[in-house]
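haha ok so turns out i had the wrong file open the whole time. this is the CORRECT one, sorry everyone. sequence first:
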Amino acid sequence: MGQSRFAKIPYRIYTMALAVACLIGVLLFGLGTSFYWHEKQEAIDQTIANLNQAADLAGVEAYVTLFEAATRYEEQSNQTSSFLSTPYKERALQYNERLLNDFEAGINERERETLQTFSNDLNRILEEERFEAVPNDVISSINRRWFYRALEQTNQPNAAYELIDAIMRMQSMLMRNGASLLGDSIDENQLASTVDLIVGEAAIIQTIIASNTTLQTKAVIDVAESGQSFANMANREASLEARYVNSTNVYEDAYGALRSIRSTSEIALREESKHYQLLATISFVMIFLLSLGLIFLLYYTRKRYNHDLAHLKARALAIDPSLTPVEEMFPKTHDFRGIEDELREIAASVHSTFHELENRSQDLVRYHERWSSLFSETGLAIALMDDSYNLIERNEMFRQFFGDRNLYEINQLFTETGRRLFEQALEGVTNQGTSAQFIIHLKGEHTRYLNVKLTPLKREEQLTYYLIVEDETDRVERERKVDRLVRFDLATNLYNEYGFIRRWENQEIDGAFVLIRLHDYHHLVDWYDPAYADLLMNEFARTVEARLSKYAQHLFGRYRDDTFMLYVRGFSFEDEHELLELFPTELTVNHKRQNVHIQIGATETKPAYNDCLFEAMKALQHAKETRIPSVWYDSDILAQMQLAALIEQALPEAIRKGELTVAYQPQVELKTDRVVGAEVLARWTHPDVGVVPPNEFIRVAERSDQILWLSHNILDQTIAQLVAWQDTPFEDISLSFNLSAHSVDPSIVAKLRDSIELHPWLPDRLKIELTESSDIMSYESELERLEDIADLGYCLSIDDFGTGYASFEAIWHLPIQEVKIDRMYVSGKAKESTSFLRAVSRFANEQQLTALAEGIETDDDLSRMIHEGVELGQGYYFSPALDAASFETWVNTKGHSH
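then structure:
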C-alpha cells in the first residue's frame, strides 16, 4: 500500500499544530471583530459630541440673530430700555462659554480659527452691535455638516436631509433680510419677495412631512404653520410690532425644529452606540467560549490518542509476547498510524468479499425459487420434453390444457394447419438449435388461440425442449374488436375510409369509383335526431349491399356522415343507368316512408386511391353546385374547375372595377298583363373569357366567401336604379334583389336600414328574394337578421318554392309575403303536376301570400298559371333579362306588343 505523505510525522504533532493554528485564528478573528465594533461605537460617540457642539454653535447663532432683531425693533420703536434684547444677549453669552472648549475635533484649521476669533470677540460684537462680524456662513456650513453626519449614521431617509435644508434656508432668509423686515422704511417689492421665499420654504416643509409621517414632530409642524402664517406680513399695513413678533416666532420655531431633529438623532445614535457595544461584548464572549472549546478538544484528542496507543501496544503483545519491552517497539515519537490503516483496509476487504459471496449465494437461492415458482405457479402451460419428444415433466396449467395426453395426442387437437406448423417448428428447433414461436387454433366447442413456443435446452450431452403454451384467445379477440373499430363504421357496419383503403390496396382496380351523398341527412338530424338519420343511412346501406350482391368484386363503405363510397369492378360511364339503379329513392324507416334524394360524383378508376377520391369529390361538388343528381368526372369537369379557378381569381378585381352589371327580367300581373316589377340579375363579361354565366360566378362567389361583396355591389346598383326611376313613369315598378342564405350579413342589414333614412319610400319598391332557402333554417343568426329586414318594412320572397322542406318551414318562422314557384312546376319536368300548383295557389290565398311563377315560356304555361290562380309571372314568354335602357323601352312598348 502507498504511504501517506504525512506518515513519517507523528500524528499527535500535526494534530496539536492544527489545533493551535485554529485557536490562534479564532482569537485573531474575535479580537478583530471586537475591535471593529468598538471602532464603530467610537465613531458614533464622536458624532454625538459633534452634535452637542453643533447645538452650542446653533444656540450662539440663534440668540445672536434674535438679539439683532430685538435691537432693531427697540431702535425703530424708540424704546428707551433694552428689555427685549437683554435676555437674548445673556443666552448667547451662555452658549458661547460652553462653545469655547469645543473646538477639538470635527472642523478644519480655518474654521477653528474663525470660530475661536468669533467666540473671543462675541461680547464686544454684541456691545458694539457689529452683527456683520458674525460668521453665519461658517456656522451654517459646520452645523449642516454635523447634521448630515448624524443622519448618515442613523440611516435617515432623503426626506430628512431635505427637511433640514429647508429649515436652515428659512433661518438664513430671516437673518439676511432683517433690515427689510424691521426697517423704518419698507420696500414693498423686497418685503414681498422675502415673505414669498419664507412661505415657499414653509410649503416645502409641509410637503416633506406630509409624504413622510416619521418626520411629523410637533416642532416641525409648528415651524411649517408659523411659516405659512408669515404670508400676512406681505401687507404694507402690517405694523412693525407684528413683523417683529412673526419674524422672531418663525426663527424661534425653526431653531426649535432643528433642536428637536438634533435631539432625535442624538437619541438614535446613543441607541446605536449601545447596540455596537453589545455586539463587541457578545463577540468577545463567543470567542472566549470557542477558545475554551478548542482547548478542551485538544485535551480530549490527546487523551484518546494515548488510549489508542496503549490498545495497539496490547494487541502487539498478544500477537507476539516476545516483543518486550513494548515501549522499545513503540517509541513515543511514532503512533504507527499507517500500519493501523492498512490492517483496517485488509479487514474491510475481507468483510466485503465475504458479504459479496453471501449475496450471490442468496441470489442463487432466489433464482431457484423463482424458476420453481415459474414452472409450478405461473399462468403459462409448461412441459419438458426429451430428444425423443416424450413429455418428461408438465406443470398444472399444462394439465388443464391437455390432461395427461402424450405429444401425438396433443398434436391431434390442433387443426391441420396447426399440426403442420408444430411439426415444422420441431424440425427447425432440432436442426438449428434455435427457439420457435407461432400461434395455432385449438379445436373444440369454442375456438381458442394458443401461443406456442419451443425452446431447446442442452444438459451435458442430452438435448431437451421446453414446450411453453399461452392462451391468447382474449388478446386475439380484443385485437379483432380494435381492428373492427379501426376499419368499420359502427352505425352501418360498412368499411370506413381507412378500412376501404386497406381493401383497395389488396385488389386489382379496374372499374368505377363513386361518392354518394344523401342530400337530406343533415336536415333529418335537425328535424328528428341523429339516431333517425343513422337509421336512414343504415337502411340505405343494407339496400345497396343487397343490390350489389350480384357483382363479384366491389367495395362499399361510408366516407363521411352523409356520404358513401363505392367501387364496382368493370363499371364505366356507359353503365351510369345501371349504377343509378343500385341506389333506392324511397325507404321505410321506423314504419315511415322516407324519400331519399342523392347526389353522385363518379369517376373511372385510377391505380391510386387519392386520385380517384379527388376526381369523385370534384364531380360530387359539381353535382351539388349545379343540383344535378349524377356527374361523371371528365375533361369538361376539369375545364369547369379551371374556369372556376379563373373566376375566383378575377372576381374581386371585377367587383372593384365595376365590371359586374345588372339586368332586369320583367314580372307581369298575369290577368291584366301589367308590368309590376322585375328581378335583378347579375351579369359579367370578362375581358378574356367573355360572358360568364351567372350561375358560374355566383357559385364560385359562394364557395370562396366573395358572395357578400358581390351582394353589396348588386344591392348598390339596384338601389341606384330605383333612385334613378323616382319621379319618372317607372316609379311604380318594384325590383327583386336576390339574397343568398350565405349573404345575410349584419352589413347588408345596416345598408338597408341606412338607405331608408335617405329614401323612405325604398321598402315599398325593393323586395328581398331569398335564394338557397333550403339552407336558411340551418342558421339561427341569419333568421334573426331576416326578421330585422322584415321589421324595416321590406317584402320578403322565397325563391324556388317547392324544392325543399325548408322553404315551407321558413314561411312559419319569417314574415314571408311572396312565394316564387320553381320553374320545374311551370315549364319543367313536373309541369303536368297541376295538383301542386293548385295546392300552392290555395295555400298562398289562405296565408295572404303573393304567388309568382317563374319560367313561363309558352301560351300553355301562361294559361295553366292563370287557371290555377297564380297572380304574377316572369319568363321568356314575356321577355329575357334586359339592361336598364332596353327594359324601359320594352315597358314603354308593352301595350303595343300584347
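Confidence is low (pLDDT under 50) at residues 1-9.
again sry for the mixup
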